[in-house]
Design brief:
By secondary structure, the protein is mainly alpha-helical. The chain has helices at residues 3-6, 40-56, 67-79, 85-103, 113-126, 137-140, 146-165, 195-206, 211-220, 224-228, 276-296, 317-329, 340-351, 356-363, 368-374, 376-395; strands spanning 7-10, 13-22, 29-37, 235-236, 241-243, 246-251, 255-260, 271-273.
Length: 396
């Protein structure tokens, strides 16, 4: 088609409208208008340049889309897939509490690396959302750790990567942004108990009638939701093993929910061998529950959970955390949180010389490197022990 015929003179100058490629979702041709230009020659040069870019596949003009509508669409259609309810809830808080208040009405094409760096600088300075006005500034102000900032950074990076894939922006502004530095925390050893501390705690827990879940937790290192989500069909007494098939969590406004593991979950259906002592504890628990069901009927523990309260209902994860905290508080042991039982299991396994791949499989880490990074102090102790043993072998 004659280029000159594509250029139209209107009230404010010269304009043209041409195909600029296909819509990535519908596959239909997209047309776009350009102008005004002061002269027909200027319009013609621009038309030739854009048409050449379209033919070469280098043309790019981002659509106008504000950050809030984009982040909500991405979060619901992409991020929430195959994530635990707890993760979704905590990340949703970041989106609603930090990202939307700051970037909300900005066009995502206008969010560059400088804007990102400024956002994180203000988060560090203010200790809360820099755009949010606090009624009681000093009360609401709190420092945000680099670990927390790293989570925010990662969430933004994932979102902007997808924005590039969706054709909304050409370059991910996070690629050149100043990334929060999370130091390799070698103080993890202080968040785990020694075997002596474990025994002190278990003795105290037994007096409160809660030893079973804590004992299984410290021996297997499984997560709180996985522990309380165990059902009797997950227990293989014959082979002395448990299978992680789901997780128990509390959904805001809806109460306790059970979520089965998905096939894409990195810790999906992992099988963990359990020692005779744990098998015996679970056998006694099962016998007691069967006896109670005979007395109270099938409504007692109708969902078949391994760990239940005195009413036959699953134990609330927050309740278990609270009871753990109350017990630890009065003991002469390191004041760790409930997740510290998981750290304790991993640390003690590493110190016993269990291969890191086995520890990683037990914990349900996606990669062995995650285990190595997290428990590097135990790995260092094992290496030191190995070199000491080699020294004795050579020189004794």
């Amino acid at each position: 088609m004659d280029i000159d015929k594509l250029i139209k003179l209107k009230a404010k100058g010269y304009y043209f409208r041409i195909d600029v490629g296909k819509d990535p979702i519908t596959g239909k041709r997209r047309q776009q208008s350009f102008g005004p230009f002061k002269t027909k020659t200027e319009a013609k040069k621009e038309l030739i340049k854009i048409r050449t870019q379209v033919m070469e596949g280098t043309y790019f003009k981002p659509p106008v889309k504000d950050f809030e509508s984009f982040i909500n669409e991405w979060f619901e259609t992409v991020y929430c897939q195959n994530k635990s309810e707890t993760t979704i809830e905590t990340r949703r808080y970041i989106v609603d509490g930090h990202l939307i208040p700051y970037f909300g009405k900005m066009h995502i094409k206008d969010i560059n690396t400088r804007v990102i760096d400024t956002f994180f600088a203000e988060l560090r300075k203010n200790g809360r959302n820099p755009q949010k006005k606090a009624k009681h500034e000093e009360k609401e102000k709190r420092d945000l750790s680099e670990s927390y900032l790293h989570i925010i950074f990662s969430l933004l990076n994932q979102a902007f990567k997808k924005a590039v894939a969706w054709g909304l922006i050409k370059v991910n502004p996070m690629e050149s942004a100043q990334k929060p530095v999370v130091k390799n925390n070698k103080s993890k050893r202080n968040k785990a108990w020694t075997k002596e501390e474990v025994n002190i705690f278990l003795e105290a827990a037994s007096k409160k009638g809660l030893v079973a879940p804590f004992l299984v937790g410290v021996v297997t290192g499984i997560r709180r939701g996985e522990l309380l989500g165990l059902q009797w069909e997950d227990i293989d007494f014959g082979n002395k093993a448990i299978t992680i098939n789901g997780t128990l969590y509390r959904r805001k406004g809806e109460g306790l929910k059970y979520k089965p593991k998905t096939k894409t979950d990195s810790s999906d259906n992992r099988v963990i061998p359990i020692p005779d002592a744990i098998v015996e504890v679970l056998r006694k628990e099962k016998a007691l529950q069967d006896e109670m069901r005979e007395k109270l009927g099938d409504s007692y523990n109708s969902e078949n959970f391994v760990f239940i309260n005195d009413k036959g209902k699953p134990i609330d994860p927050d309740y278990l955390t609270r009871k753990f905290r109350e017990t630890v508080k009065i003991l002469n042991v390191k004041q760790i949180n409930l997740h510290g039982l998981r750290h304790t299991a991993a640390t003690l396994l590493m110190k016993l010389g269990v291969h890191v791949k086995i520890v990683s499989d037990i914990l349900g880490h996606s990669r062995v490197q995650v285990t190595l990074d997290y428990y590097s102090h135990s790995n260092e102790e094992m290496m030191r022990q190995s070199t000491n043993e080699l020294e004795q072998h050579i020189f004794s």
